[in-house]
């Protein structure tokens, strides 16, 4: 059918097309490594750099890299730990070097990456992993090897209850966040006169989603709400038609969702297709605050409420937030979000501890981590500060906020005194938009 | 209609729409297996490439997916032949395990190529020509999905007609039955294989362009559809085109109906249960061979 020459020119054409479309991808700037012979402190960071969660992995990595740049460089204007001097002053100006591992959202891979980073790359501490199911196994490996593990973004409540000595979590967990939801519903009733009596609870079925669902169901019972639909679903699915139809049939006053990015997009599209109009959707972070969510669904994402750990409009009270976000945007091409902000903060907390330890000995780092006490005005998070509970390694000073998508952007709407905009409840129906 | 009947009708309609989507993808896979006895594990990733093609044609040249459909089909047709010539042809006489690894290698290659070239971000064509939904007697039908289903029926019908009623189709079937005997009759099996690959890939070319109207595109999207397509092909009877088509509809219906009336968490359980029952009772699949 084809002779050699036609064939070769076909291949060339295909290659050109690939090149053309590849050239349209925005360049991803990477920080240049420090060329000086100053000793390095090597840290491992394990994130989902490929697979369905790769967009999130990319921003997590970006957050860590920005923190490293600030630590290793001189930024006296930023009120962040270790920004003012180059490198770690108590270690003679040593620079941080991060080696990234890709866990592909697989707990087994996460564990093997942790092992590899500890035994082959000789990291002195680990950061990771976003997916709670992967953090569970990776931190197990760290515990065995007696390497400190700082968890900045996984929120499954069980992670700090395992009696581990080397596990430290900066972020509040889903139990706290679920409580935040019910505080919010209570405020909605008392301060805005909006009453929610029935709930539909939808959640993806890995460790994270299942734990969120469980916490929400327990708290619903505790506070007297009726759960009219309980819908766990497989998160890598081609369609969610039956799930949404069940939601329509249940007709709850509010829908609580826990989804990762691809299912969040799928649900939003299906809500529109099947004309599902609940009064309000309360999402538990993750997929719904990922930049790819609004990037993909655009205006269809309006009016969704999400528990958030961080929002850009915190800059109103903390101008440093905007400065850091600008730096991040310059390097990664997107605004920061809860994931990148927490990864960024986690790296700073770890570096602060290493600096106070004055050594790269994992035991010394662990001891320094336990003594961490960073005040709220030195972090870009809406927390009171960072400390670690001596028994569990959990930061008790964290808290969440609730944001709403309005005009395709996230605005803080709760706590009402931190809100930058008024909440819109109930959501306008699809027909009204 | 009573609310119950309405709900049932909506579920059936949605199930049909989902199922026909699967059918088209599966038909292409069935064609390749039917002619060559080779399972193309990279089928889902060919779908991914077609979806990206439709996306980029829209982004760079503002070409609506409906208009770029013929172009995507042609591109995938050529890609299918290229894959045959470059990879598959060389492993035709190799042990089965090498053949499996070859197409599996294509999976890894294509996915990572897509990651590298186009980043893992999700892409969606925002304002395609086909959008919105219809409301028919209280049942919601998504317009892009409806058109995709019609496209699936047309494309599958065409493939079936081509294979069963044309001279070249007979040559394809002859090669599938007995390569040597067909060669003795003057049929060039190399050309037939290339054609099978080209047409099989063209099927997902059509499917990809249609899907891009309403589904988001990212490097791993092949995994979501590819695995189900494999299962559907086996269910329908390896190599049977009407089999793959029917099985696709069945899987779509079972998935949505099972998900609604039993529980969404169990929808795949129901699908695979039915699959197991059929495959145990009738190992050659629903329709056996053409």
Question: What structural keywords apply?
Answer:
heterodimer; A: 433 residues; Rossmann fold; 2 domains; 7-stranded mixed sheet; 5-stranded parallel sheet; 12 helices; 14 strands; B: 290 residues; mainly alpha; two-stranded antiparallel sheet
Topology:
The complex is a heterodimer of chains A (433) and B (290).
Chain A: H1 4-23, E1 40-47, H2 54-72, E2 95-102, H3 107-119, E3 125-128, H4 132-145, E4 149-151, E5 167-169, H5 174-192, E6 198-204, H6 207-223, E7 226-233, H7 241-250, E8 254-258, H8 261-273, E9 281-283, H9 291-297, E10 305-308, H10 319-332, H11 338-357, H12 362-370, E11 373-375, E12 385-387, E13 401-406, E14 409-414
Parallel strand pairs in A: 1-2, 1-3, 3-4, 4-5, 6-7, 6-8, 8-9, 9-10
Antiparallel strand pairs in A: 10-13, 11-12, 13-14
Helix pairs in contact in A: 2-10, 2-11, 3-4, 5-6, 8-9, 11-12
Chain B: H1 3-36, H2 43-61, H3 65-86, H4 96-118, E1 133-136, E2 139-142, H5 143-165, H6 167-177, H7 179-184, H8 189-211, H9 221-236, H10 241-261, H11 267-281
Structure notes:
- The complex is a heterodimer of chains A (433) and B (290).
- Chain A is an alpha/beta fold.
- Helices cover 40% and strands 16% of the residues of chain A.
- Chain A has twelve helices and 14 strands.
- In chain A, β3 (125-128), α4 and β4 form a beta-alpha-beta unit.
- In chain A, α3 runs parallel beside α4 (132-145).
- The longest helix of chain A has 20 residues, at 4-23.
- The radius of gyration of chain A is 23 Å and the shape is globular.
- By secondary structure, chain B is an all-alpha fold.
- Chain B has a single domain (3-281), classed as Orthogonal Bundle (ABC transporter involved in vitamin B12 uptake, BtuC), CATH 1.10.3470.
- Chain B contains eleven helices and two strands.
- A two-stranded antiparallel ribbon of chain B has the order 1-2.
- In chain B, β1 and β2 (139-142) form a beta hairpin.
- Chain B is globular and about 65 Å long.
- The interface between A and B is large, with 49 and 54 residues.
């Amino acid at each position: 059918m084809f002779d050699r020459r036609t064939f070769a020119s076909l291949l060339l054409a295909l290659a050109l097309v690939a090149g053309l479309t590849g050239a349209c991808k925005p360049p991803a700037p990477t920080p240049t490594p420090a060329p000086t012979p100053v000793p390095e402190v090597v840290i491992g960071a394990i994130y989902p750099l490929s697979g369905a969660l790769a967009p999130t992995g990319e921003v997590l990595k970006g957050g860590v890299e920005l923190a490293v740049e600030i630590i290793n460089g001189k930024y006296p204007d930023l009120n962040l730990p270790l920004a003012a001097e180059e490198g770690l002053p108590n270690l003679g100006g040593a620079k941080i070097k991060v080696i990234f591992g890709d866990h592909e959202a697989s707990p087994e891979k996460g564990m093997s990456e942790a092992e590899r980073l500890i035994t082959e790359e000789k990291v002195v501490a680990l950061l990771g992993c976003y997916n709670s199911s992967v953090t569970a196994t990776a931190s197990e490996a760290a515990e065995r090897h007696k390497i400190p593990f700082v968890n900045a973004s996984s929120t499954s409540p069980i992670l700090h209850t395992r009696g581990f000595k080397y596990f430290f979590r900066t972020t509040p967990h889903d139990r706290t966040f679920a409580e935040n939801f019910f505080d919010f519903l209570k405020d909605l009733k008392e301060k805005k006169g909006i009453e929610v009596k029935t709930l539909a609870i939808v959640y993806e079925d890995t460790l994270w989603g299942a734990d969120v669902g469980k916490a929400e169901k327990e708290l619903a019972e505790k506070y007297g709400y009726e759960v009219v639909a309980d819908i766990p679903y497989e998160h890598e699915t081609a369609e969610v038609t039956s799930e949404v139809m069940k939601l329509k049939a249940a007709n709850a006053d509010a829908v609580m969702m826990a989804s990762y990015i691809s299912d969040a997009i799928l649900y939003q599209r299906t809500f529109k297709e099947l004309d599902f109009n609940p009064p309000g959707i309360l999402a538990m972070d993750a997929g719904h605050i990922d930049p790819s969510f609004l990037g993909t669904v655009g205006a269809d994402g309006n009016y969704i409420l999400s528990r958030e750990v961080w929002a850009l409009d915190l800059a109103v009270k903390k101008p440093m937030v905007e400065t850091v976000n600008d730096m991040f945007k310059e390097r990664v091409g997107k605004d920061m979000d809860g994931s990148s902000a927490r990864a960024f903060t986690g790296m700073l907390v770890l570096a602060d501890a290493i600096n106070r330890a004055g050594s790269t000995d994992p035991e010394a780092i662990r001891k320094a981590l336990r003594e961490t006490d960073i005040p709220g005005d030195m972090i870009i998070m809406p927390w009171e500060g960072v400390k670690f509970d001596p028994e569990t390694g959990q930061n008790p000073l964290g808290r969440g906020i609730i944001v709403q998508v309005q005009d395709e952007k996230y605005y803080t709407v709760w706590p009402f005194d931190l809100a930058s905009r008024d909440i819109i409840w109930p959501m306008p129906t699809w027909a009204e938009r | 209609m009573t609310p119950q009947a309405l709900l049932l009708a909506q579920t059936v309609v949605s199930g049909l729409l989902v199922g026909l989507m699967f059918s088209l993808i599966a038909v292409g896979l069935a064609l390749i297996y039917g002619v060559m006895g080779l399972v193309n594990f990279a089928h889902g990733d060919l779908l991914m490439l077609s979806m990206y093609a439709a996306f980029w044609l829209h982004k760079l040249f503002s070409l609506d997916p409906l208009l770029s459909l013929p172009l995507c089909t042609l591109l995938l047709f050529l890609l299918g032949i290229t894959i045959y010539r470059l990879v598959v042809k060389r492993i035709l006489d190799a042990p089965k395990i090498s053949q499996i690894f070859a197409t599996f290698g294509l999976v890894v290659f294509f996915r990572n190529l897509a990651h590298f070239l186009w980043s893992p971000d999700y892409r969606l064509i925002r304002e395609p020509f086909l959008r919105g939904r219809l409301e028919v007697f209280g049942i919601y039908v998504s317009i892009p999905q409806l058109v995709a289903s019609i496209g699936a029926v047309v494309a599958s019908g065409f493939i079936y007609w081509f294979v069963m009623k044309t001279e070249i189709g007979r040559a394809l079937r002859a090669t599938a039955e007995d390569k040597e005997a067909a060669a003795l009759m003057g049929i060039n099996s190399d050309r037939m294989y290339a054609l099978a690959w080209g047409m099989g890939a063209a099927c997902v070319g059509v499917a990809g362009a249609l899907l891009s109207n309403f589904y988001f595109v990212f490097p791993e999207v092949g995994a979501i559809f590819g695995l189900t397509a494999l299962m559907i092909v086996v269910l329908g009877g390896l190599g049977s085109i009407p089999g793959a088509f029917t099985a696709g509809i069945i899987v779509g219906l079972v998935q949505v109906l099972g998900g609604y009336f039993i529980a969404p968490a169990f929808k795949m359980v129901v699908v695979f249960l039915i699959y197991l029952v059929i495959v145990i009772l009738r190992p050659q699949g629903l329709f056996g061979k053409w």
